Amino acid sequence: LTGLEAEEVLGTLRTWMRGSAQVYEVQSQDVLAATDMLCRWRTGLRTPDALHLAIARRIGASLATFDKVLARDAPEFRVDVVDI
User: Fold this and answer.
1) What does the pLDDT look like over 36-53, one tens digit per residue?
2) CA–centroid distance for 14 within its chain
3) Of the candidates 66, 64, 79, the residue with the CA atom closest to the CA atom of residue 33
4) Is the dihedral of CA 68, 74, 79, 80 positive or negative?
């Protein structure tokens, strides 16, 4: 993207977030939970994925993702995955 295109996309994202998204802060308990998830050697989770799972579990949210590893591992951590 050009700089101008990137700014336009970011502007669209910010507008959507103000009107449609609930933003949750990462809490220390999320980092601890994500660390525990990552220590399970059989998962293929990466740190950002584990943080997303930890936050989703804390707030009781389901997860929508195209990431096959994340979708496969989410139920192990008591996070429902939306079929998309």
Assistant:
1) 999 986 778 899 999 999
2) 18
3) 79
4) positive
pTM of the model: 0.79
List all residues 6 or more positions away from 11 whose beta carbon is below 8 Å from its beta carbon.
none
Element (DSSP H or E) covering residue 9: helix 3-20
Collapse the DSSP code of 34 into the 3-class scheme (helix H, G, I; strand E, B; otherwise coil) and give the result: helix
User: Token pair for residue 19?
Assistant: 């009107």
Burial level of 74, CB count in 10 A (0-12/13-18/19+)? buried
Q: Give me the amino acid identity at 48.
A: P
Is the alpha carbon torsion for 45, 74, 84, 48 positive or negative? negative
Give per-residue burial for 36-57: e unless 16+ CB within 10 Å, then b.
Answer: ebeeeeebebeeebbbbbbbbb
Residue 72: strand, helix, or coil = helix
